[in-house]
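# nightly structure sweep
# worker-07 picked up a monomer target from the shared queue
# config: single-sequence mode, recycle default, output format = structure tokens
# input follows
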Amino acid sequence: MPVATSKQFEAMLDAAQEGGYAYPAINCSSITTINAALKAFADAKSDGIIQFSTGAGQFASGLNHKDATYGTIVLAEATHRLAEQYDVLVALNTDHCQPEMASSFLKPLIEESAKRAAKGENILFQNHMLDASILPLEENMKISQEYLKMAAEHGIVLEVEAGVVGGEEDGAAGHEDMPSEMLYTTPEDMLAVYEALHELGRFTFAATFGNVHGHYKPGAVKLRPEILKEGQEAVIGKYGQDAEFDLVFHGGSGSTLEEIRETLGYGVVKMNVDTDTQYAFTRPAAAHMFENVEGVFKIDGEIGNKKAYDPRAYLKKAEQGMCDRIMVACDDLLSTGKSIAKDV
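# output follows
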């Protein structure tokens, strides 16, 4: 099935909210990693989200160019074609576009979707993230309003963030000297976000509750999922059940399964998965090198083994390793077996 349409993506969000599950959102940077995600979703019978950061776009455009927008378009176009081979819904998202890059990254990508729609084709992306969380909330909401209007005009959902996710993820970083309270979105913040955006178009919200980007042992990251519950209660209490946020969970590496599942009860419908899948991809490739060292390297003037150093030999193993880890994420987020592809 092709990449989800705007209406199908909104139906995905509704189904997750009503069903108490969330979609793994997998950061990809190549055709191999895209294929790993598509295979995992299909094998798990789960719909899902594939997303690209500005860094992934730069990588995909080639070493001589490092053009985030062009590379991201290439990755998205490839996903549209590859997704046609599968029978689950996949939505496309861009991840962590910061304000200074919005006009040169988000705006042209939205325009690319508009061009496709004018030709009767599906839009390129169903979801874009504007990460203006480093700004004061009032400034954050001002630029978020601008891009939400732009996105909504073309049937695109905008993901916004308030509060700061600690650590670093592909260029998106918190600051070492930031106050600890910035790691937690308050109920007042959530009310302000709802009031600023709800009339302009559909959006998802990455509220922060102690999240930290990067890789940590279980229990090392001190999450406070109750922050999400308190914020939802404040908004619903003032504006009714229809005001419930579609929440996004960033910085989940090192979270316990109990913590992950708790957030699902508070309205999380999307969880970013990047660090864990990067390791799951690289680990089998590294093992291949160790296990085939004499074939991969031409040692002492020998000729090596072409079957061992052919990139396909180790990339197939890497792809399967990443696929397996994504299927674990589907299980953790309770999306396994819940594709709505046949219903929409």
